[in-house]
Description:
The chain is of the alpha+beta class. The chain has 13 helices and 16 strands. The strands form 3 sheets. An 8-stranded mixed β-sheet has the order 6-10-11-16-15-14-13-12, sandwiched between helices. The structure holds 4-amino-1,4-dioxobutan-2-aminium adenosine-5'-monophosphate (4AD) and magnesium ion (MG). 4-amino-1,4-dioxobutan-2-aminium adenosine-5'-monophosphate is lined by residues 165-166, 206, 208, 229, 238-239, 242, 244, 246, 388-393, 432-434, 436, 438-439, 450.
Amino acid sequence: MNRTLVKDALVSTQALDAIFLQGWVRTRRDAKAFSFVELNDGSCLKGIQVIVDATLPDYAAVSRASTGASIAVHGKLVPSQGQGQKWEVVADKFEVLGEADATYPLQKKGHTLEFLREIAHLRPRSNLFGAVFRVRSRLAYAVHQFFQEKSFCYVHTPIITASDAEGAGDMFRVTTLDLAQPPKTEDGAIDSTQDFFGKKTFLTVSGQLEAEIFATALSNVYTFGPTFRAENSHTSRHASEFWMIEPEMAFCDLQADMALAEEFVKYLIRDAKQHCAADLEFFSKFVDKDLLARLDFVLERPFQRCSYTEAIEILIASGRSWEHPVAWGDNLQSEHERFLSEEHFKCPVTVYNYPRAIKAFYMRKNDGDAPERQTVAAMDLLVPGIGEIIGGSQREERLEVLREGMALHHLDEKSYWWYLDLRRYGTVPHAGFGLGFERMLMFVTGVANIRDVIPFARTPGTAEF
Ligand code: 4AD
Ligand code: MG
């Protein structure tokens, strides 16, 4: 007999004479004539109640069905006598597949998120993490749906790369050289020409530069894959390995880029509300009371936009004493980003036109700025509770201006020869952005730490599992 998932059994339109379920025991309660076993299989938040009659030949097995044990149940689906559920299962046959003794760490009581991180191999079996990872899966699907519906082409950009896309230098080195005895050049430096790829290679920080190659051929493309940053940030919003979605559009400017970013964020929220309603309700009950109201509010209101220069004026006019000083030319820090979205605009806000000196080399130089206030067509989408979830820009399509930008950032043109070629042959205005998938999940679930929305968090000092 085919297995039925709990999520399907719970919404059955009729009683069933025969049903087969498999899953794990959440709780068991023994009464005189029956045992009640809550079976959860991860297909949805809820479990289904299984009633095992003491007269059943298999009844002896029930005593081994402790919390965490895996079980298989054949029985009947009948209307539930109890409250809060429509259906329950009366067992005909009850089998314990794998026992779990009293050392099973997820006994039914509240655990701290910190403790659950230490048992990341078991935490998906908890209500919270089951919900988080179901939403994660659904939103990954929605990402593809959003772009595929718009005829964007999905491009797989490389994970191992020789180029530094953000020019920031926070990259993990990839090497097969013997670290104890690396080959050296005459001047004593490590000789990377003898390394696996014949040059220095790294884990990618972004698929953008390669996505630009494909955008200038297929027009609208996107990437969705893991990216890596070796920055030593110990915050609740930074991971060393995270997933990023990067659309790239040819014949596109910053305005259209910002519009797509806003539409994308709203689409994902709407999708989660529609397809993960029970899980979101759980988050709003146990993680963040304001979650559902906030998501509705975000969907209803148009996002705000403000230039970097206006943002600086707002921050100065606020009269706050900032931990990091605010002056034109400085990067916005988390406290500033959160003030703008949480307190000033009280909604998501896209800040655009940042100082050229603090942004990446590839961003398009705006015309008409005073030389000491040179800006680029960059944008960051900031949301309440998190700050930046999207960073993007219009790209510099003018060869000479791009070369000037590279010189400004001390980049070697030789390693970017192919990137420059895109400007030599059929160059077009183009733009794109990157959405941090985990930050989006934090926003949609209300879960406050990035370590709790990725199955196995990679952060400085941590790479268990
Ligand atoms: O702003 P970032 O660095 O932009 C880029 O990488 C561009 N190449 C994107 C593009 O234009 N195609 O990163 C984009 C987003 C951030 O807004 C943030 O949401 C997320 O990626 N992000 C991180 N998420 C988790 N941990 C980190 N260490 C992150 N660094 C960036
Ligand atoms: Mg950024």
